[in-house]
Every structure is written in C-alpha cells, then in structure tokens.
Design goal:
Blueprint: H1 2-13, H2 18-32, H3 38-50, H4 55-95, H5 104-128, H6 132-147, H7 153-168, H8 194-217, H9 221-234, H10 243-251, H11 259-271, H12 279-318, H13 322-351, H14 355-369, H15 375-392
Helix pairs in contact: 1-4, 2-4, 2-5, 3-4, 3-13, 4-12, 5-13, 5-14, 5-15, 6-7, 6-13, 7-13, 8-9, 8-12, 9-10, 9-12, 11-12, 14-15
C-alpha cells in the first residue's frame, strides 16, 4: 500500500517528460525515502536505458519490485500511471477538441522540469561523476548525446562508458564503495527467482511473435488493438516522444484515429503528469471507448513490465562481480552526462526562451536545492509562474 501511495503521489505531480520523471524519482526514492542509494539508482536508470519501453516507468517498476516483489512492481506502475490514464481517458471522452498546447500554465510546468532535472544532476553528479576520470566520462557522454542523436545512441554511449570504466577503474574494482561509504548491492534486492525472470522474458518474446499471427487468424478489434500497442511498446528505445511515430503509423493509416485527433491528443498528453506512454489510453478511448483504453494501456506497458521483471534477477547477480562494478563506475558517470544533455535538449531549448523564463526556472531550482521544499510546491509555483508570465508577456 505504501508503494502505491508514494508512486501515486509521483503520478499526480511528475510533469515534464521522462527525464524530469527521473528527477522526481531521485528526490522521492533516493533522497527522501532512501529506498535505494545513488549508485543503485544510476545503475537501474542505465539498465532501463538499454531496454525498450518507457524508461522512467521501468525505473519505477524496478524500485517497486525491489520493495515488494511482483505486487510491488504492479503497485508502482498503477500508482504512477493511473492519474495520467484517467485524465487522458476523460479528455478522450469529453474534451478532445480542446487545444492545450499553448497554455501558459503548461509552459510553467516545462520550466519546473528544468529545475527538477537540474536538481537531479546536481545531486547525482556530486557522487557519481566526482573526480577527474568520471567527470571526463560525463562530459564526453554529454557531448556525444547532443551531437549524435538517434534511437540507439544512448545505448552505445552507455556501452562505451562501461568499457571505459572497466579499463580505468580495474584497480579499484574490489572496492565498490562510493565516497559516502555506501554499497550498491546492500540497498537493491530483488525478491523474485530467476525462473520467474526466464518466464517473463519468454512471455515477452512469445507475445511479440504470436500476437501478429493471432490477429490475422482471428481479426477481432480487441486482438488487433492489443497487437498494435504491444508491438509499439516492445520496439521503442528511449521511450517518451520516440513512441509517437510508431503509434501514428499503427493507428492513423489504418483509419482508427484521424490525424487531427492524434495531434490533439498529443497536446493533451503534454499537459498531464506521468508517462507519455499513456497517450495510448487516449488513442484507445477514441477508437473503442473505455474498453479500448484498457486494452491499449495494458498492451503498451506490458512489454516494459515483462522485461524489467525478466532482467532484474540476473542483473542483481551480475552487478556484484568486481569487473561489472568497474564498468558500472563508467556507466554511472555516463548516465549523469546523458541527463545533462537532456537538460539542454529538449528541456532547456523548448522551455527557456528569455530572461523571465530563466529567472522562474532559477527560483524553482532554488526552492528545491537550497530551500529544501518538496517537488509538488515547485509544480504549483511553476504553473502559477507560467500563468503570470503569460499575463505580463
């Protein structure tokens, strides 16, 4: 119940997209509740960057899994996802003609995301990118991420950082302690068996291959809907906005959703908290009402759930080996660099347009870092500040 309550609070307040979500998660799970330490969190983020699907949702599922097993993973997903799902289903039923893309309060929430991500980088960087070698890896990862942007660049950057860490930190591989004396394996345990993990991985690949066959043999609307959204959730690396072209290719050419309704829903998805993958809930609602929303939501998130449950039992064992720990020092630094790149593009470039925007983002950052106020206060202040800037602008 606690896992659901905490994740539901994040689901209501986590505006700004997947990178901002990682900042909210870091503040809640690492700094406030100490459910896992900095190193474990960065390793989990790095692992989820490798896997297809919504990375921030997978991080939440992984934390829920470590706290409460399979039930905890489901509770974490439900809590974080349901607020967004409910809002987008209501929008699909009642308000899909409303244009929210240019709302002033939405611009304020984007500036809140700037502050949230900057706070996460500030905190994580001081521990995971400390020292000349790790700071250099972080800087190079930032540069590579900004200059080389495609669906697989982050995966390759993390892999290169792992190989670099394996070479640079081989002498310190027997000591996995951070500067603050914590050890990653002490605070991140997964209470599920490898057999369960193998079953989930087999189910993931089995559904990916079987659903297209089933949809042709038994072409009902529900099966075709499940097949389309499951495939979209299975084949997207990077999450967030990357899923939009796949979803568009699945639902617009087939005539399920018009181009106008698709773009309207995308604007609505930007205005609600939680994962952008819940855009599927809106599309399912437009296509088949509430039953369609349920099918689309479960189908697009199921691959992420199966993968994180399938991989973590093996990951938890691998990460204890000294060579893996050496590699993870490089990976953790690269994660900081990737987050720093995301802070600039797309978060900063799409949000900070003039001095007034910068001042509001700076005030929100100070609220979080120096005044130690909870993130939800920054969300409210950001929305109010955006409205104020809209009136005086």
């Amino acid at each position: 119940m606690q896992i659901f309550a905490v994740s539901a609070k994040l689901g209501v307040t986590s505006f700004g997209g997947p990178v901002a979500h990682l900042g909210y998660f870091h503040d809640e799970y690492v700094k406030k509740r100490k459910w896992l330490d900095e190193r474990s969190y960065a390793e989990l983020v790095a692992l989820c960057q490798f896997l297809p699907g919504p990375a921030s949702s997978q991080v939440g599922m992984g934390i829920g899994l470590s706290r409460g097993g399979l039930a905890g993973a489901i509770a974490a997903w439900l809590g974080f996802t349901m607020p967004s799902v409910v809002l987008l289903v209501l929008f699909g039923l009642l308000l899909h003609g409303m244009d929210v893309g240019g709302a002033a309060w939405l611009h304020g929430l984007k500036l809140t995301a700037v502050a949230i991500v900057a706070q996460a980088i500030w905190s994580m960087g001081s521990k995971l990118a400390a020292g000349r070698s790790r700071a250099t890896i972080a800087v190079l990862a930032t540069a590579a991420t900004l200059l080389w942007q495609n669906a697989f660049s982050q995966i390759l950057i993390i892999a290169a950082a792992g190989l670099t860490g394996l070479w640079l930190f081989r002498k310190s591989s027997h000591s996995t302690a951070l500067e603050d004396g914590t050890r990653s394996e002490a605070s991140f345990l997964v209470h599920i068996s490898r057999k369960c993990g193998m079953f989930c991985l087999a189910l993931f690949f089995g559904l990916l291959g079987f659903l297209p066959v089933l949809s042709r043999l038994w072409p009902t609307e529900g099966i075709q809907l499940f097949d389309s959204f499951y495939r979209a959730g299975s084949l997207v690396f990077g999450g967030g906005h990357v899923v939009l072209p796949l979803l568009q290719s699945e639902v617009v050419p087939s005539g399920w959703v018009s181009e106008s309704d698709f773009l309207t829903g995308y604007g609505a998805a930007q205005a609600v908290p939680g994962p952008l993958f819940t855009f599927a809930s809106y599309l399912g609602t437009v296509m088949s009402g509430i039953p369609g929303a349920c099918i689309a939501t479960i189908a697009i998130f199921l691959p992420a759930f199966l993968l994180i449950v399938g991989v973590l039992p093996f990951w938890n064992a691998l990460r204890r080996y000294s060579k893996v720990q050496s590699a993870l020092q490089g990976v953790n630094a690269a994660v900081v660099g990737i987050l720093l790149a995301a802070l600039y593009n797309p978060i900063w470039t799409s949000s900070v347009h003039d001095a007034s925007d910068f001042i509001l983002a700076l005030v929100l950052f100070a609220m979080l870092v120096y005044w130690k106020l909870p993130p939800w206060t920054a969300v409210i202040a950001g929305a109010a500040g955006g409205l104020l800037l809209g009136m005086i602008g």
